[in-house]
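Q: What does the predicted 3D structure of GUC1C protein look like?
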Amino acid sequence: MGAGESLLGDGPVPEMHHYYSKFMRECPSGQLSLHEFKKLLGLQGLDPQGDLYIKRVFDIFDLNQDGFIDFLEFIAAINLVIRGKIDQKLKWYFKLYDADGNGCIDKKELLSIFTAIQAINGHTNMSAEEFTNMIFQKIDVNNDGK
């Protein structure tokens, strides 16, 4: 090892401490509820579609499905968002969009996601239904509705 190297390296330990401090400051109980998650992201008071989308995100990050995001689940989520490889991110998005878990994303699920994203972002130059129809025409190459 060189003079400037440490046993653990520079990156993960200080970064992990930073995230742990922030997590515990925002959530002293060590467990982040859905309400606290929305507050942390500044996404309170959304319409029902936006709320449903945020709940899906929360549920996917809540790996053990106990109704809370603990620090390890929080770090796993941050790691996916910041350092995740494209295939990992695509799998996560697919899981988010495939609301019924049947392994396919149908037009109804796509519309639900676009409506929620539009509600969160406030973009309304095209309705969620128009956007969904346009996208679905391009991606449903075999016309099976999935």
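A (community wiki): The structure tokens above were generated from the sequence. Residues 5 and 11 are 11 Å apart (CA to CA). Helices lie at 12-26, 34-41, 48-61, 71-83, 86-97, 107-121, 128-139.
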